[in-house]
Amino acid sequence: MMQQANQQSNVAIIGAGPAGSYTARCLAMLDIKTDVYEEHHEIGSPSHCAGHISINSLKKLGLYPLQKGIVENTFNAANFYSPSGTKFAIHLKKPVTCVLNRTKFDQHLAEQAKQAGATFHTGTAVKSLRIENNYVKGVNLQDDTIVSSKITVDAEGISSRLLRQAKLEGLYRKGLVYAVETEIDQADNVDPHTVEVYMGSSAPGFYAWLIPRLDGTAKLGLATKHGNPQNYLKNLMTQHPIVKKQVKGAKIVKIDYHAIPLAGPIGQAYSNGFLAVGDVASQVKPTTGGGVIFGLTCGEIVADVVKLALDLGDVSTNVLNVYQKRCDAALSFDVSFMLRLRRFLNSLSDERWDSVLRFCNRFGIGKALSDVEEIDYQGRMMMRVATKPAMLAALGYFGLLYLFANP
Fold it and tell me: How far apart are CA 313 and CA 156, in angstroms?
């Protein structure tokens, strides 16, 4: 087949998820010609995330409040359960998180990028990177169109195919968990402003969640490191002493599957003429699996570094390595803490989960956390609350458990 006409752009972005669209917005606001290539015909569909997001982090990024219809609910409380039903509750002084309609949110970010001047190409799949003399020079589209760009940004989500073409290491496969995300038509016996979280063998290597909407429907899902997530979901709905009451009579009206990288950001997310941002670079919280805020944060850094490289006329690793340094400075302290916390959580048996949650109730951990507003940067959050007597006791207790579990 003959190759189609060459398209020209300063920056080609692969993927119109939150990280890709927000990066495009930031670039366009710097007057950098930006083209976004999205394989699906509709931005935001299919949705691969529950959309449970920190309000404070959205505000810091200038994205909150959002347009009507995007925010489906807000939350000021969370309940945590062991597989046997032991409960620990946290009640916050004000709403700290919200759940978003992810399709509408993704489309909102794309619309902002378009208004800033970025161009979107939907239903346009990228086949491969264009590489010349060890530099990424753009992409080849599935229809054989050639796209030439000075810098290419990979924001395609959970995939390592383009990373490897750019001679970078892909996602750490052993760090992935596999999720099933559903929407159910009703959830009884739940507070509409409380997120429900289920730990232990209900979802080995991660956790399960129920996120209610104000209309009585809910998002129910889990991720697991081992086995079939759909089987674990079925067991959760029919066997868990709490969940089976909360979802009694409910029907699943939508279901999606996706992987979540929990190993922390990849060691190098740049090469000559190339940057990676978002889930593809594993810029995801190891504790909760949330990647939206980290991806948006790194998208801002992408734009600043691209502007620097274009102004210097140098898109080599000598300049683009600034991206890695700035992302590390923004995330590494908190990610290091969360990786240790994830290792600790994964070490707990179901019986130990009962003990941990009872300890949290007995020592007033919920009250100690009642004024928390920051949930994304959890290392920094822990530093702020660590001096409270209840938290000092908790740190000592959890520290001993961690040492015994990870000698």
Answer: 26
pLDDT in tens, 180-207: 999 999 998 899 999 999 999 999 999 9
CA atoms within 13 A on the CB side of 374: 11
CATH label, 74-99+174-261, candidates 3.40.50.2300, 3.90.180.10, 3.30.9.10, 3.40.50.300: 3.30.9.10
Instruction: Determine if the pTM surpasses 0.85.
Output: yes
Alpha-carbon distance of 56 to 62, in angstroms, equals: 10
Dist. CA 145–CA 286, nearest whole Å: 38
Ranges of H-type helices in 117-180: 161-165
- In this predicted model, what pLDDT tens digit does every residue of 54-82 receive, in sequence order? 999 999 999 999 999 999 999 999 999 99
C-alpha neighbours within 13 Å on the C-beta side of residue 218:
24
Residue 319: CA atoms inside 13 Å, Cβ hemisphere, count? Answer: 18
Phi, psi torsion values for 306, nearest 5 degrees? -60, -45
Instruction: Report whether 117 contacts 28 (CB < 8 A).
Output: yes
> 7-48+103-173+267-336: which CATH topology?
FAD/NAD(P)-binding domain (3.50.50)
- What is the number of alpha carbons within 13 Å of residue 292 lying toward its C-beta? 23
* pLDDT tens-digit series, residues 312-358: 999 999 999 999 999 999 999 999 999 999 999 999 999 999 999 99
392 forms beta bridges with none
Residue 19 tokens, joined: 């990280």
Whether the Cβ atoms of residue 211 and residue 52 lie closer than 8 Å to each other? yes
The DSSP secondary structure of 112-131, one letter per residue, reads HHHHHT-EEEET--EEEEEE
Q: Which of 155, 377, 178 is nearest to 278 (CA)?
A: 155
Pairing between β-strand 52-54 and β-strand 126-132 as defined by DSSP bridges? unpaired
